[in-house]
C-alpha cells in the first residue's frame, strides 16, 4: 500500500507541504512569525544566530541548513537582521546550492519591520506560486522513534514498522524529547513516534508530525487528551495511525501547534 | 523644577512603569500556547523559551531568570502555564519572594489538555487585563525609574554619539535619585579598569574586575579567545577595529556617575545609583537579565538597527548615525547621529534622550512596543546538546 506525498525536489518526497519561514537570528523571530501567520507558513522562535562563538557558529548554521533541507519542506524564506553572526544572505546561498526554492529578506535592508513583512510576504507567496509540488509516492517512509522513558516493546514496534516497509531511526533521550526531535529532524524522518518521559508532556516539532504515546504515569493519564495513542493500544494500531498521519491527518501536537526547537549549543553566548 | 513622573504603585511599595499581564510558560511545550493566548487576549503579553524543565547545571540560573522576570514590577499580574512539577513550584515561590503579588497558575495536569489550558488561561488573563486597564497612575518619585543601558550592532560612531549622549541622560537620572544599570560584560572587556576606578568603594571595583575575569575564563575554558571573536562581523563592517575600542565606546553609556555596585545576572539593585550587571552581550539574553533584575525601562543604542523589544520593559532605540535612522524608521525612536553631523551637541542629544525616557516612563509607547516585539532568550552557561 503506497503513501502519497509531495515531491520537494532535492529535499525528497515529504508527507507535509510546509513553507519554512526561517529566522537566521533571534532578533528576526518576531518578524518571521508575522510573515508566517500571513502566509500560513511554519516558523519557530529560537535564541541563536548571534553572540555565538567557536564550534557553535558552524553548529547552528548546519542545524538550520538541515532543517531547511527536510523532505517535509516545500520552500524556505530566510528572515535575517543584517549584522548577525549567521548572515541571512550567506545562509541563503548555502541553501540555494541544494534547493532553488529559497529566498531571503533582511530587516536592515528592507526599510525596517513593515518593509520586511511586506517584502517577506511577497517573496513567500512567489515561492508558493513557483514551486507547486507534484503528488508523488513516498519511496520509503522514515519513522523516528523518540524513547525518553522505559519501553518494554521497542523491538516489537520496530518489527511491526519494518514489516510494513517503513525505515526506523531510534533516538534515546534522557528526559526532554526536544533534543531527540532535533536529532530525528536532521535524520530526515518524515514523522516521529514519541514516548515522552513520564514527567514530561506531549510535545511537537515545527516541521514534523509527532505521534505522542501516553504512558501510565499520573501526568500522562491526566492529560491523555494531548496524546494520539497509549502503550496498550499502540502495537495493534500504529501502522494505520501512521498511514492516516502520513496522508494528512493532523496529530494532536500539530493541532495544538505545540513544541519549540532545541538547537545544539557547545559554548555560552557572549 | 523636578520632572513629573506618574507610575503604577504596587502594594509592596515597588513602582511599575507599565501594567502588564504576562503569560509565562514554564515549559517549552507550552510556549506556542502562551503566545497564542497573548495574541487573542485583551492586551496580555507572552514569551517563548526552549527550557523543558531540564534539571542540569543551568537550572539555578534559569529559575532565577524566570522568577525575576515574573516578579518585575512592570507586571500587574502573571498567568503561569505549568505541567505540574517541583522546578515550576520553585520558580513561582521564588517569584513571590522577589515581590510577585498577583498570579494564577494553570496546570496542564489539572485542566487535562492543552486546549483547556488555553481557554482557562485566556479567561484568567482577560480578568487581569480588565483590572490592569482600570488602574490609574499616581505621582511617583524619580527613584521609581530603574533604567537599563544596552547597546547592540555597534559601529564606529557608537562611542562618539549615542553612547556618550545616553551617558549624559543616565548621569542626570542618577543625580535625581533614579537607578541606572550598565550590562554586557563582553562590552566592558578592556575598559573594566576605568569603571572600577569610579566605584564608590574599592570592594565594588574589585568585584567588577573579578566579574570580567570570571567571564573571560568562562569562554577561555572552551579554548576560545574572546578577544579574537569580538568585535563581531557586524561591528567590523560598522568600522570598529578591536574589542578594546568597542568596550571604551560601550562603557560611555554609563556616563560619569560613581559606580554604586556590581550585580550578578538578573540580580535586583538594592538602592538607587549606578550599577554594573554581569550579562552576555547577546542582546536578548541581556534583556532577559535586565527584566529579571527588575529594570523597568531600557535604552538601547545601535549602529546597525534592530527591532528588539521586551514583553515587559519599554525599550527605547537610539541610532548612532543618521543614515541608519532614516533607512529603518519604524525601528528607531531617536537619532543621535546629529552629533556627528554637527547639528546638535552631546548635551542636546542627552537632553532629548532624558526627556524621552521620562515620556516613556509616563506611558508613551516605544516603537518596539507598538510593533509588539517580545523577543526572549534564556542565558545558559553550559552545553546544551552536541550530536
Descriptive report:
- The complex is a heterodimer of chains A (270) and B (387).
- Chain A is built from nine helices and eleven strands.
- In chain A, the strands form three sheets. Chain A has a five-stranded parallel beta sheet with strand order 8-7-9-10-11, sandwiched between helices. Chain A has a three-stranded antiparallel beta sheet with strand order 2-1-6, with no helix packed on it. A three-stranded parallel beta sheet of chain A has the order 3-4-5, sandwiched between helices.
- The longest helix of chain A is centred in the middle third of the chain and has 18 residues, at 113-130.
- In chain A, strand 1 and strand 2 form a beta hairpin.
- Chain A is 36% helix and 19% strand.
- The mean pLDDT of chain A is 94.
- Chain B is α/β, with parallel strands linked by helices and 387 residues long.
- Chain B has two domains: 20-134, Rossmann fold; 142-370.
- Chain B contains 15 helices and 14 strands.
- A seven-stranded parallel beta sheet of chain B has the order 10-11-9-8-12-13-14, sandwiched between helices. A four-stranded parallel beta sheet of chain B has the order 4-3-5-6.
- In chain B, helix 1 packs across helix 5, helix 2 packs across helix 3 (86-97) and helix 2 packs across helix 12.
- Chain B starts with 5 loop residues before the first strand and ends in a 17-residue tail after the last helix.
- The model of chain B has no long low-confidence stretch (mean pLDDT 94).
- Chains A and B meet through helix 1, helix 4, helix 6 and helix 7 of A and helix 1, helix 4, helix 10 and helix 12 of B.
Amino acid at each position: 500500500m503506497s503513501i502519497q506525498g509531495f515531491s520537494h525536489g532535492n529535499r525528497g518526497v515529504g508527507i507535509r507541504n510546509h513553507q519554512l519561514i526561517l529566522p537566521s537570528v533571534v532578533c528576526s523571530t518576531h518578524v518571521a512569525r508575522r510573515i508566517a501567520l500571513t502566509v500560513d507558513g511554519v516558523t519557530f522562535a529560537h535564541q541563536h544566530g548571534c553572540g555565538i562563538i567557536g564550534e557553535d557558529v558552524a553548529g547552528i548554521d548546519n542545524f538550520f541548513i538541515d532543517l531547511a533541507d527536510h523532505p517535509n519542506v516545500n520552500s524556505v524564506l530566510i528572515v535575517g537582521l543584517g549584522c548577525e553572526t549567521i548572515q541571512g544572505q550567506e545562509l541563503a546561498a548555502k541553501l540555494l546550492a541544494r534547493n532553488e526554492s529559497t529566498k531571503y529578506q533582511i530587516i536592515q535592508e528592507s526599510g525596517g519591520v513593515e518593509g520586511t513583512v511586506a517584502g517577506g510576504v511577497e517573496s513567500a507567496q512567489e515561492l508558493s506560486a513557483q514551486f507547486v509540488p507534484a503528488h508523488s509516492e513516498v519511496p520509503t517512509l522514515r519513522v523516528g522513534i523518540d524513547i525518553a522513558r522505559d519501553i518494554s516493546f521497542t523491538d516489537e514496534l520496530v518489527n511491526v514498522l519494518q514489516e510494513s516497509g517503513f525505515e526506523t531511526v531510534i533516538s534515546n533521550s534522557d528526559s526532554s524529547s526536544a533534543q531527540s526531535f532535533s536529532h530525528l529532524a536532521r535524520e530526515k524522518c518524515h514523522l516521529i513516534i514519541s514516548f515522552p518521559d513520564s514527567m514530561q508532556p506531549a510535545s511537537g516539532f515545527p516541521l514534523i508530525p509527532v505521534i505522542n504515546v501516553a504512558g501510565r504515569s499520573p501526568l500522562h493519564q491526566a492529560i491523555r487528551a494531548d496524546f494520539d495513542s497509549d502503550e496498550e493500544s499502540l502495537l495493534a494500531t500504529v501502522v494505520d495511525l501512521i498511514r492516516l498521519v502520513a496522508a494528512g491527518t493532523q496529530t494532536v501536537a500539530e493541532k495544538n501547534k505545540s513544541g519549540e526547537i532545541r538547537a545544539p549549543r557547545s559554548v555560552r553566548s557572549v | 523644577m523636578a520632572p513629573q513622573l506618574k507610575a503604577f504603585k504596587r502594594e509592596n511599595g515597588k513602582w511599575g512603569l507599565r501594567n502588564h499581564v504576562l503569560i509565562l510558560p514554564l515549559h517549552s511545550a507550552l510556549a506556542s500556547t502562551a503566545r497564542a493566548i497573548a495574541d487573542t487576549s485583551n492586551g496580555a503579553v507572552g514569551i517563548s523559551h526552549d527550557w523543558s524543565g531540564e534539571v542540569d547545571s543551568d537550572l539555578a540560573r534559569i529559575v532565577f531568570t524566570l522568577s525575576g522576570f515574573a516578579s518585575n514590577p512592570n507586571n500587574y499580574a502573571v498567568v503561569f502555564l505549568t505541567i505540574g512539577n517541583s522546578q515550576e513550584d520553585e520558580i513561582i515561590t521564588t517569584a513571590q519572594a522577589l515581590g510577585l503579588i498577583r498570579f494564577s497558575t494553570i496546570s496542564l495536569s489539572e485542566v487535562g489538555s492543552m486546549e483547556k489550558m488555553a481557554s482557562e488561561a485566556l479567561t484568567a488573563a482577560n480578568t487581569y487585563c480588565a483590572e490592569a486597564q482600570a488602574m490609574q497612575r499616581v505621582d511617583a518619585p524619580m527613584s521609581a525609574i530603574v533604567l537599563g543601558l544596552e547597546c547592540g550592532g555597534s559601529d564606529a560612531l557608537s562611542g562618539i554619539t549615542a553612547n556618550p549622549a545616553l551617558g549624559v541622560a543616565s548621569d542626570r537620572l542618577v543625580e535625581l535619585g533614579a537607578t541606572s544599570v550598565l550590562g554586557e560584560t563582553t562590552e566592558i572587556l578592556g575598559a573594566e579598569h576605568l569603571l572600577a576606578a569610579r566605584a564608590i568603594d574599592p570592594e565594588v571595583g574589585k568585584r567588577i574586575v573579578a566579574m570580567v575575569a570570571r567571564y573571560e575564563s568562562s569562554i577561555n575554558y572552551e579554548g576560545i579567545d574572546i578577544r579574537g571573536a569580538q568585535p563581531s562581523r557586524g561591528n567590523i563592517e560598522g568600522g570598529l577595529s578591536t574589542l578594546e575600542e568597542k568596550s571604551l565606546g560601550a562603557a560611555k553609556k554609563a556616563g560619569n556617575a560613581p559606580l554604586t555596585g556590581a550585580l550578578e545576572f538578573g540580580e535586583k539593585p538594592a538602592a538607587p545609583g549606578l550599577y554594573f550587571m554581569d550579562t552576555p552581550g547577546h542582546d536578548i539574553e541581556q534583556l532577559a537579565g535586565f527584566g529579571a533584575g527588575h529594570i523597568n525601562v531600557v535604552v538601547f543604542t545601535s549602529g546597525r538597527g534592530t527591532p528588539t523589544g521586551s514583553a515587559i520593559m519599554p525599550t527605547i532605540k537610539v541610532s548612532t548615525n543618521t543614515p541608519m535612522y532614516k533607512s529603518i524608521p519604524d525601528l528607531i525612536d531617536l537619532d543621535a547621529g546629529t552629533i556627528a553631523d554637527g547639528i546638535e551637541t552631546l548635551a542636546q542629544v542627552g537632553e532629548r534622550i532624558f526627556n524621552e525616557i521620562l515620556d516613556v516612563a509616563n506611558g508613551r509607547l516605544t516603537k518596539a512596543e507598538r510593533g509588539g516585539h517580545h523577543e526572549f532568550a534564556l542565558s545558559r552557561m553550559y552545553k546544551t546538546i552536541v550530536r
